[in-house]
Amino acid sequence: MDQALDDTPRRRLSLSDQLDCVPVYVVWELTLACNLKCIHCGSRAGHRRARELTTDECIDVIRQLAELGTREISIIGGEAFIRRDWLTIIRAISDHGIDCTMQSGAYKLSSSMLRSAADAGLLGLGVSIDGPEALHDRLRGVRGSYREALRVLDDCRQIGLTASVNTQITASVMPDLPQVMETIIAAGAKYWQVQLTVAMGNAVDHDDILLQPYDLATLMPLLAELHLKGRAHDLVLLPGNNIGYFGPHEVLWRGPDRGYYSGCPAGQNVIGLEADGTVKGCPSLATDRYGAGDVRSTSIAELWQSHPALQFNRARGTDDLWGFCRDCYYAEACRGGCTWTADSLLGRRGNNPYCHHRVLTLAERGIRERIVKVEDAPALPFATGRFALIEEPLPREPTPEARCT
Description:
Helix content: 25-40%
Number of helices: 17
Order of helices and strands: HEHEHEHEHHEHEHHEHEEHHHHHHEEH
Strand content: 15-25%
Number of strands: 11
Largest sheet: 9 strands, mixed
C-alpha cells in the first residue's frame, strides 16, 4: 500500500491521530481500467470494475472523508486518468481542503493533461519505474512505457509539480538498482519509494520475479548504500511498508526522527478504497478477506468505527503471530510486519519471512528460508495463491582452493 511522497508534512501523524485512529491518508483506486499489462500487478488491472462509483458518488465519498479528518488522498488505478471525470475528482478533493497526489504508470499521460491536473489541485505525481528500459517495458507489458515514464517526469519538472518514483523490487531488478537511482536523480525526482513485489494477482502467475527471503541479505546493504548516495543528490529513498524490519540499516530510513517500524498501519490511519466503493484498511489487502463493505450501503464513518475488517490492527497484540515471528524479540513492536506480504504469501497474517532481522538471525544458525508456489491465484483482482515456506541449510561459501579449481 505503500506510496511515495511519504514525508509530506500534512500526512505526518500526530499523537492524537494515532490515539483516535484518524484516517489521515486514503489510497483510492478510481478505476481498475489500465493501459499497461504489468506482470506483477496484484489487482490484475486492465478492465474497469462493474458498477464503479459515479462522479456524484465520488464527490460524496470525498465529503465523508473530509468529515473524518482525512488530509491526503492519493488516487491510483488501474490508471486514474482513464476515468473521464478524474480532473473533477481532483478538484473536489482540493476544494474540500484535502491534499491530492497521484500514482501512475504514466503511459500516455500528456503534458497538457498533467498541467490540467495541476491546475485542478494535484500536488504531486508518483511515477513507476521498475528497472532499465528493457526490464521496465517487459515488466509493464508495453514497449515504450519506460520512455513515457521519463517524459512525464520531465514534464513534472517543467510544470513545477513535485515528482517521485516508485519501484517494485523484483528478483531481476536488484543488480540494476544503482542504475535506476542514477536515472531518477537525472530526472529530477525528489523521492524514491521502493517496495518488494508481493505474491498477489499477476505476480503469482509469474512467481519467478519474486525475491526469495534470503535475498534480503544482499538487498538491504545495497539499499542502505543507495540511501546514503541519494542524500548527496537531494533524493530521499523511502522504504515501503514491506521492506526492512530491525536490521542494522533500519535507522537510516525509519529512525531516529521518523521512528522505528511500529507494525502494519492498515485500518489505523489508512483507508483503501476500490473503484466500486469497497472499503479496506489497506488498498493492497486481499478483498475477499479484508473488504469491509461498500460506501453505497453504509457510510464510511460507520464502517471505519465498527467493521472488524478495519478494526483488526487497532488493539492488536501478538496473539495472532506464529512461526518465527511468534517468539521474535521485536514481536510486540513489529507484530509480524506487513499484513499484505504475509497474508498474500501464506494465507494468514502474523508470520513474515521478508524480514531483514529474521534473515540475519537464521543465517547465524546456518539456515535460510525459500518460498515455493503450491497453488495458483484465481483470475480475480487482489487474488492470492498459496506458497510453501521451506527451511533449508544455508549454502556454504566455496573455499579459496575450490574457487581456484
